[in-house]
Design a protein that fits this description.
Helix content is 17%, strand content 58%. By secondary structure, the chain is an alpha+beta fold. It has one domain: Lipocalin. Strands 1-2-3-4-5-7-8-9-10-11 form a 10-stranded antiparallel β-barrel. A hairpin with a 2-residue loop joins strand 8 and strand 9 (122-128).
Length: 159
């Protein structure tokens, strides 16, 4: 009986390690986000276009099983966690502000871009430009067309 418990325990540990490796592998697909970034955040609104400096620090947590994003500008201070659920094969984006967290939003990789969907008419896109810049933008669906409401273009911080 003891050896049966040991064998079951061994397979449980192997399963858990493989699940973690799958999370790591999924999050490795977002490695283009990792770095200390700085640049310009542009807001497109009814009152015109506005720009401010922004920084975004992105790193792995928990041995590569989570990604954290810390965004700071005069408009926003945001801490976000990105995870991957092996069971449902989905990414989750959890944004936190000084007011707390609303919920986790589903994300997916589409044609090399990380897309996060807040609802059917609002989404975020994370990608890299041809010059290697971090490019993040938010869009709203207006009359059947996706329109940007903000855009950050960032370069790796140089010391």
């Amino acid at each position: 009986m003891r050896s049966v418990k040991l064998i079951i325990g061994f397979f449980f540990v192997v399963f858990m390690v493989n699940a973690q490796e799958s999370e790591k592998q999924a999050l490795q697909k977002l490695s283009f986000l990792i770095g200390d970034w700085e640049g310009t955040s542009t807001s497109y609104g009814k009152n015109g276009v506005k720009k401010v400096p922004v920084t975004e620090n992105v790193s792995y947590l928990l041995d590569g099983n989570l990604i954290q994003l810390n965004v700071k500008s005069e408009w926003i201070a945001l801490h976000t966690i990105i995870s991957y659920n092996v069971k449902d094969k989905k990414y989750y984006y959890y944004p936190f502000t000084k007011n707390g967290n609303k919920q986790g939003y589903k994300g997916e990789i589409v044609e090399g871009k990380f897309m996060v969907y807040f609802n059917e008419s609002r989404r975020l896109t994370f990608t890299k430009t041809e010059k290697g810049e971090f490019h993040e933008f938010g869009e709203r669906l207006v009359n059947g067309n996706w329109e940007k409401y903000f855009e950050d273009i960032l370069e790796l911080h140089k010391e």
